[in-house]
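USER: If only I could read backbone structure tokens as easily as an amino acid sequence. It would mean a lot if you studied the pair and described how this chain folds. Here is the record:
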Amino acid sequence: MGEGRVCFSREAKLEFLKQKRLQRMQTGTLHNDTAYVTNLMSRSSGDALRDPASCGVRSFRNPDVYAKSGSGLNERDTMSKQKIDKFATTDLDWTDNMPECPVYFPSKEEFEDPLAFLQKIAPEASKYGICKIVSPLSASVPAGMVLMKEKAGFRFTTRVQPLRLAEWNTDDKVTFFLSGRNYTFRDFEKMANKVFTRRYYSAGCLPTTYLEKEFWQEIASGKTESVEYACDVDGSAFSSSPSDQLGNSKWNLKKVARLSRSILRLLETTIPGVTEPMLYIGMLFSMFAWHVEDHYLYSINYHHCGAAKTWYGVPGHAAVDFEKIVREKFTKLFKSPVNTSSPSPEHITQDLVMVLIVVRL
């Protein structure tokens, strides 16, 4: 869920997993051999409701799960897939060569003033367009406890995302519609883990680089027709407990817009996602399209819990080139607006636009 911890994975397993996936592609079999991977930590399941430090070492890279969509889905033939030559997945090694964004480790003193710290790192971070800041504070009340206990009655409705972006034809359209399924945080977590386990035979964390390849393979030619994603959910998972250091800090996203250095404090009207935070609760393969933030403001995202979340970013100085490349390469493919498209970073880097990767842990 839109903030958090990631599980440590051994990169030595990557080559094994890669070979197994290639064998599966070549033979056409649907069998999954990842059961042989040592599962070091649970992905989320109960641990989201327990100690926030229980998910292991801070590490780099990963996305999140597929579920049946419920009554709101189109018919199966509407969501069916067929490969096209424009999105080759025979070689996904480019995912191993993506540069990473700068990572900052502020001291507790530096962490006391969020906007002062952002101003300090801006000259460097702005060259990349995206960065990662590792908090010196941790939440003493896990996000799951906040949403299940402190916010009793908290529920949300997911949206269904079709998972066939790489191979649409001109008759296809982007459609994100309500699934009609309403969840508590715990119920959604159980559903997501069940689907993950069905696919990988375990709820344990898999190497993030492996899952990144799985994502792009699934986009191109996989069997998953849709995923559920709870995006733009009003609320916050920061605790209001007086004993929670992170919740009481100025980095609590409920407080940032009202800080003395923020011009947003002058707004008299509450604007969800701008003056108030929103939650994004995802699963394996759920995603958000390439975009710029409202009014070109900074976007601050805190990853509370669950599996790691992969972000791709483009530096601001390359924004015009990025949009030009997307229009030239993809508007002929899609009738849908380009701002709902999700081309792979490989397509962009081929045209010399720097694409960066960051993983929230």
